Amino acid sequence: MSLTETPSERSLFHSVLQLWALLLGIALLLAGNGLQGTLLGVVAEDSGFSSALTGLVMTAYFAGFFAGSAGAERLIGRVGHVRTFAALASLGSIAILVHGLIIDPWVWAGMRFLTGFSFAGLYVVAESWLNRESSNTYRGALLAIYMIITHGSLAVGQGLLNVASTSSLTLYVFSSIIISGALVPILLSSAPQPHFTLDVERLTLRKLFSISPLGLTGSFCAGVANGIILGMGAVYARRLGFEVGGVSLFMAACLVGGAVLQWPIGRLSDTTDRRYVIAGVAATAAVIAAMMPMAAEQGLLALTLAGFLAGGLTMTLYPLSMAHTHDWLDVDQMTPASSALVMVYGGGAMLGPLGTGVLMGAFGTNGFAYYLIALCLALSAYAVYRITRREAPDSTEDYLMAPAAISAGEYWAETAVEEAGEAEEQTQASAP
Which among 149, 196, 249, 124 is positioned nearest to 419, based on CA atoms? Predict the structure, then answer.
């Protein structure tokens, strides 16, 4: 197989071989990130942080992610994909060590912001590379492989929580080692960096809302829901009295559910009006959330099953909303719309941990479930309302099992490469 082959000339198998280093790097990054996210939730609870304060700390990650998804544009434009990846991975590795050295909520908030900023940029680099090196004939299958790796690695990260005591520095060091290890395959890969030029017209949020109100609203609610589960799920399970092993099992179940339910729900949405699917998924998620307090009383097994279903259902809401939005767009609007959607998703994700912390402070552990119930019921009701406002689109785009980061990754990397190319052309034109 030649390294000079274009994506359209390669099969899915050959593309996976071509991108093995990138996929391995992503797997290591997410395993390290999955470990530290749950670790910090457990330690924050054991250290006596209030629910509101813990929510604020966890929100800082999503705030950093929101900023980093746009800030990576300039970094890539200045130094390229590989150097950007190396620099941000190093920052993320440093940040997790500082968490272990200084257990202070305000220091943690700053480090969580830095971690979110770093990982957003890492996703932009890695996922834009993945997306641009695949062909339309097998992009969906390659993204499915990516999703399996993503959720699988995050779930593995939950299991790593059990290899050492959460009160020692060991797990922080372990997470740092894994994240640093992600640099090795990326830096040694011989695969070419993505090169492309594409003119894109950015869409304002107001214009996008006028095109697809449910798509934009659904993306925001998906961000809030995932912020609740991924940001505060470990705190919730720990506050219920479960040991570290139970906490990691609950979080792993949420992530595995997100992987398992993607395919059947996605296929259903390709054959049914997506608004009905969004309404049904959100309503079902609300019912599962309402059962979580009862499940918690029954023990870890029942709560794990509820987490599997709640996580699986809510983690399909973003790709469902993204696909529904694309159903109403012209081809040249899809990339800028994806960027806008991921920014809205990031904005919602910031409200997830913050609101959960406040509600858990007011209503106890059940505040976690109350937030999910209210959110999912509101989204379901809005989807039903939108069904009454207009007919379904004449044709639909294929559902892609893509996380939020991949959409922004393609857009920001494209913009960065364009700007870098324009700057180089201007330099050459001004040279004597």
Answer: 196
Write 142-146 long-range contacts (CB < 8 A, 24+): 142/12, 142/15, 142/16, 143/400, 143/401, 143/402, 143/406, 144/262, 144/263, 144/401, 145/16, 145/23, 146/23, 146/26, 146/402, 146/406
Three-class DSSP category at 111: helix
Local structure of 391: helix, strand or coil: coil
Angle at 41 between CA 288 and CA 114, to 5 degrees: 115
Looking at residues 27-34, what average pLDDT do you find?
89
What one-character DSSP code corresponds to residue 191? S
Residue 82: exposure state from Cβ atoms within 10 A (0-12, 13-18, ≥19): middle
CA distances in angstroms from 151 to 34, 108, 261, listed in the order given: 9, 25, 12
Compute the distance between CA of residue 249 and CA of residue 208 in angstroms, rounded to an integer. 39
One-letter amino acid of 116: G
Q: Which two tokens stand for residue 123?
A: 């996703």
What whole-number distance in Å separates Cα of residue 105 and Cα of residue 111?
10
**pTM (predicted TM-score):** 0.76
DSSP string, 202-238: PPPHHHHHHH-HHHHHHHHHHHHHHHHHHHHHHHHHH
Domains in the chain: ranges and CATH: 12-430 (1.20.1250.20)
Q: What percent of the chain has pLDDT over 90?
A: 37
Q: What distance in Å separates the CA atoms of residue 171 and residue 168, rounded to the nearest whole number?
A: 7
Query: Any idea which residue has 């700057």 for tokens?
Result: 423
Tokens standing for 350? 């910031």
Pair 277, 214: CB distance under 8 Å: no
pLDDT in tens, 55-93: 888 889 888 888 887 676 677 767 777 788 888 989 999
**CA–CA distance, 336 with 332 (Å, rounded to integer):** 8
Both structure tokens of 373: 């119930």
Nearest C-alpha neighbor of 97 from the set 178, 181, 173 = 173
Q: Closest Cα to residue 247, out of 17, 8, 27, 45? A: 45
Secondary structure (DSSP) of 404-430: HHHHHHHHHHHHHHHHHHHHHHHHHHH
Q: How far is CA 96 from the centre of its chain?
A: 19
